[in-house]
Structure formats: C-alpha cells, structure tokens
Amino acid sequence: LSQVAKRLEETARHFKTMGSLGFWSQFLCTLVSAAILAFSIFVSGTATATVTKYLTAAGIAVGFISVFRSFGYMRLSGRLESAMSDPSKAPPRTEVIDKLKTGIIVNVLGLASTVVGLQATVGLLVAKALNSPATPFLQGPYAGQSPVLALDVFLVQACANALLSHFLGLVFNLELLRSVS
C-alpha cells in the first residue's frame, strides 16, 4: 500500500509539473499566435488568403483546446494526490492513458492544420515574390501588382508560434504517457 501511495505521489507531482509547463508554454505561444493573426487581419482588412487564414485560425483554436487539456492534467494531479490516502479512489490507469492519447491526437491535428496553413502562406508569398517585377522601392508597385507586405510575413510568425505550441503540447503529452506507461 505504501508503494502504491508513493507511486501515486510521484505520478501526481509529474502531472502537476508537466501540466503546468504545458499549460503556460502552450498558452503563451497560442495567445501570441492569435494576437498576431488578429492584428494582421484587422490592420490589412483581410489575411493573405482565405485558406491560410482559416487553416491558421483552426490551428490556433486547436491550440487553445490543447491548453485547456493541459489544465486538466493539473486537475488530474489533484485527484491523484487526494487518492494517496485511499488508492482505490485513484482514476484507473486506462482512463489516464486515454486522456493522454486524446491530448496527443489533438496536438497532431493542430500540427497538421497549422503546417498546411504555413505551407499555403509560404506558397502564396513565394508566388507574390516571383510575380513582382524588380522595381525600386520608392517607385511603388505597378497597377495590379500585389507585392509581398510585412503583414504577409507576419502570418508566417503566427503559424510558427502555433506550431511551437502544438510541438510543446505533444512533447509534454508523450512524456506523461511515458511516465504512466
């Protein structure tokens, strides 16, 4: 019984640490990414292209879901701590593993959406750069020309932050899964 209580204490401490690290790191990355996307849309009136806007926004939305899943791991640590005195009240290992697997799936879906959004953004920027003639900066663009703007490149930063958020979430989920398994 004392070995089970000790294992519950170690697992609870690990879930609290990893859950806190995952929550704050993902929250900050996702929040910055959302702020960058919102800023670039509000300043320019529209994002670079509709598909990039929606895919990046989907990645950010899934990022916030992952943030709240990490918060759930901190709450799960509290349940594990309270079960140290009575291990029969601890959540079953299969339930904990299922939660972690769901967290991994959420992060992989977020990564997929954000990577496709990033590829669309970069592809559009390359197309704009290749289609713009080499004109002096002060002369300005020709009629009908769509030069690469700083706000277009700003979207790449939003995607990169969302990717980092999902990567960190995936790392913390895999570490918790490793510790439980």
TrEMBL record:
Sample GO molecular function, one term: copper ion transmembrane transporter activity
Matching Pfam families: DUF3611 (PF12263)
Alphabetical UniProt keywords: Membrane, Transmembrane, Transmembrane helix
Sequence intervals crossing the membrane: 21-42, 54-74, 104-127, 147-172
GO biological process: protein import into chloroplast stroma
Keyword Mitochondrion belongs to the record: no
Claim: Transmembrane is one of the keywords in the record: yes
Gene Ontology cellular component annotations, sorted alphabetically: Tic complex
UniProt xrefs under InterPro entries: DUF3611
UniProt name for this protein: Translocon at inner membrane of chloroplasts 21
